[in-house]
Design brief:
By secondary structure, the chain is of the alpha/beta class. The chain has two domains: 25-353, Up-down Bundle (ABC transporter transmembrane region fold), CATH 1.20.1560; 374-449 and 529-627, P-loop containing nucleotide triphosphate hydrolases (Rossmann fold), CATH 3.40.50. The protein has helices at residues 15-20, 29-40, 46-81, 87-139, 142-146, 150-192, 195-242, 244-249, 253-305, 311-353, 413-420, 443-448, 464-469, 477-486, 490-495, 513-527, 543-557, 592-598, 601-628; strands spanning 23-24, 27-28, 374-384, 387-397, 402-406, 428-433, 436-437, 450-453, 531-535, 561-566, 577-582, 585-590. The strands form three sheets. The protein has a six-stranded mixed beta sheet with strand order 8-9-10-5-11-12, sandwiched between helices. A four-stranded antiparallel beta sheet has the order 4-3-6-7, covered by helices on one side. A hairpin with a 2-residue loop joins strand 3 (374-384) and strand 4 (387-397). Helix 3 (46-81) crosses helix 6, helix 6 packs antiparallel against helix 10 (311-353) and helix 16 runs parallel beside helix 17 (543-557). The radius of gyration is 36 Å and the shape is elongated.
Length: 631
């Protein structure tokens, strides 16, 4: 079972407040309401504030009308029960019956009007908080998102949104008026009958609510287990479908189905337990109320025999108690749904409690890029203290220069780009752009000044044009086409059905690796930043296309400071300076020719790659000869 961080319910020496803030699972009810209240009350929205006011008036009027319904029933019964069934009395009974029906219709109208008015307020609260959580998740660090599963995170957002709607609709729009109705019923019993009727009814209510509380506390763990199983099944389904091709490569359909079925089986068992426990809860509630109803009706029968009450009073008590059962049963539903909603949104609150690892400093200014000089000054970084990544890395990228960072896998090359974007902060040292420490500027302005073509390009499930325009949203269509032309993909786009409006599919799966990479290059070209980072930007391209893209990137990089992170050394031979990174340290630096002359680590890697390229070329030529040979 998942571990959930404790809620932050306040403690108090006052027993009443301690009871009020007793935690619902891991998050207390009052803590949840305090968190939700700024979103529930539409402060500053006059159009919603008047809806709240009118809805409250309709609630109060509706409850008063509802209290008059049993009295119309009583008056009609008393008129019919009189010995002399004179026509006028029969007419009175008919009139009271019509009054009964009219009051019921009026109450239904008031209730529906109230719900319709308050719906806009409730859904506005849902929208505001859901948007807040969505924005907050984008503000959280890369470390947070790397450690989370996308399917589980979206499921948490979905359940939390539903939970907010439930709390807003049930607690804020109906709970208080229902309590008012309880008070009105007890008052009627005291005035119309005597205090013993009110006492019996109050004891019934207390027993009902106490049983509901105990039973719901038992059911809450079942509900949590069911939610966990649901999230687990959803995560496995999304993970498997995103890796559709891998599943097919290894013929693992049966294994994936079995893995998914195990999660669904756990959800099935938890769901059955949830339905069984709900049946126990409903049966107990019905038993308690029936006993209370029977007791007050027996008391009324004795009152009729003693001459204190009429047949109409018997009808009144029956109607009042049956009418009371609806809000009383609703209070049980309210409590259950509130508890379940809090379980559903507790993870959403835990996400909101997460603090961004990287935040703008107070008073941070926008980055002002003039020349575009990038300096790494003795930068030290690790993801895990026991595994250092960068160990005192220092270099300078002069304005307009191209600096290549090469080395074996795991040397820390891509970490440099992540530090440039401030996805992480170095543990020591600093990074400056034109003398400005990037830790002291706003993240928005920093990232606006840097263009990135990553090694693994992921596209939005939208059109090709949308994905290219993502680089600069206000760009014209002609500018989008020019960026695509520079990235050597315009002719391909115009050849596919739909052109720039063609859909790329989930994560861009309808495009090849090279096509996705060129879309990413076009997107960065369109952005037109003063600083470029190319992280294995041509790794997914064939040799012919690679040379074309290299030429395009060279033209785009002209006049811009460019960091090229590469494993294939043939792509960086024209760089102004090459840094060879190994185990987090720069072990060699210089131009391509200088590093070859040194005969060190760079030269050794160059030789190995040349041998591999020559072997691959020889194999390709041999295959061409075999294909050309007569059968």
């Amino acid at each position: 079972m998942r571990q959930v961080e404790p809620g932050d319910a306040e403690t108090s020496v006052h027993g009443a407040r301690e009871e009020l803030e007793k935690p619902f699972g891991d998050v207390s009810f009052m803590t949840t309401i305090r968190h939700l209240w700024p979103y529930i009350w539409p402060k500053g929205r006059r159009d919603l504030e008047w809806r709240v006011a009118i809805a409250f008036v309709l609630l109060i009027v509706g409850k008063l009308v509802n209290m008059a319904v049993p009295f119309a029933f009583k008056w009609a019964a008393d008129a019919l029960a009189q010995d002399n069934a004179a026509p006028i009395l029969l007419g009175g009974a008919a009139g009271f019956t019509l009054l009964f029906g009219g009051l019921r219709i009026l109450y239904a109208f008031l209730t529906q009007a109230r719900d319709a008015l308050f719906a806009a307020v409730a859904m506005h609260a849902v929208r505001r908080l859901a948007n807040h959580v969505f924005v907050h998740m984008h503000q959280l660090s890369l470390r947070f998102h790397i450690g989370r599963k996308t399917g589980g995170l979206t499921r948490v957002l979905e359940r939390g949104r539903d939970g907010i709607e439930t709390l807003t609709r049930l607690v804020m729009s109906t709970a208080v008026p229902t309590i008012v109705e309880f008070a009105l019923v007890l008052g009627v019993f005291v005035v119309q009958f005597d205090w013993t009727y009110a006492l019996a009814t109050a004891l019934t209510i207390l027993a009902f609510l106490a049983y509901t509380t105990i039973a719901t506390n038992w059911r809450i763990n079942i509900r949590r287990s069911m939610n966990e199983s649901d999230v687990d099944a959803n995560v496995k389904a999304i993970d498997s479908l995103l890796n559709y091709e891998t599943v097919k490569y290894f013929g693992a359909e049966a294994r994936e189905a079995e893995r998914y079925d195990r999660s669904v089986a756990r959800y099935e068992r938890a769901s059955v337990q949830s339905y069984m426990s709900l049946a126990v809860l409903n049966a107990g509630q019905a038993l308690i109320f029936t006993i209370g109803l029977t007791v007050v009706m027996v008391m009324c029968v004795q009152g009729i025999r003693a001459g204190r009450n009429s047949i109409g009073d018997f009808v009144l008590i029956n109607a009042m108690m049956i009418q009371l059962y609806q809000p009383l049963n609703f209070m049980g539903t309210l409590y259950r749904e509130t508890r379940q909603a809090i379980v559903d949104i507790e993870k959403m609150f835990s996400i909101l409690a997460e603090q961004p690892e990287i935040a703008d400093r107070p008073g941070a200014r926008d980055l002002e890029v003039g020349e575009g000089r990038v300096v790494f000054d003795n930068v030290v970084f690790h993801y895990d203290p026991e595994r250092p990544i960068l160990q005192g890395v220092s270099f300078t990228a002069p304005p307009g220069a191209t600096i290549a960072i090469v080395g074996p896998s795991g040397a820390g090359k891509s970490t440099i780009s992540r530090l440039m974007f401030r996805f992480y902060e170095p543990q020591a040292g600093r990074i400056t752009i034109d003398g400005q420490d990037i830790a002291a500027v706003t993240q928005r302005s920093l990232r606006a000044a840097i263009g990135m073509v990553p090694q693994d390009t992921v596209l939005f499930n939208d059109t090709i044009g949308y994905n290219i325009r993502y680089g600069r949203w206000d760009a014209s269509f002609e500018e989008v086409r020019e960026a695509a032309r520079l990235a050597q993909i315009d002719s391909f786009i115009r050849s596919v059905p739909g052109g720039y409006d063609a859909q790329v599919g989930e994560r861009g799966l309808k495009l090849s690796g090279g096509e996705k990479q060129r879309v990413a290059i076009a997107r960065t070209i369109l952005k037109g930043p003063p600083i470029l980072i190319l992280d294995e930007a041509t790794s997914a391209l064939d040799s012919f296309t690679e040379h074309e893209i290299q030429d395009a990137l060279a033209r785009v990089a002209k006049g811009r400071t460019t960091l090229v992170i590469a494993h294939r050394l043939s792509t960086v031979v024209e760089a102004d300076e090459i840094l060879f990174l190994d185990h987090g340290k720069i072990v060699e630096r210089g131009t391509h020719r200088q590093l070859l002359d040194k005969g060190g680590a760079y030269a050794a890697m160059w030789s190995r790659q040349r041998e591999a390229d020559e072997a691959e070329e020889a194999l390709r030529r041999a295959e061409e000869v075999l294909e050309a040979a007569p059968a």
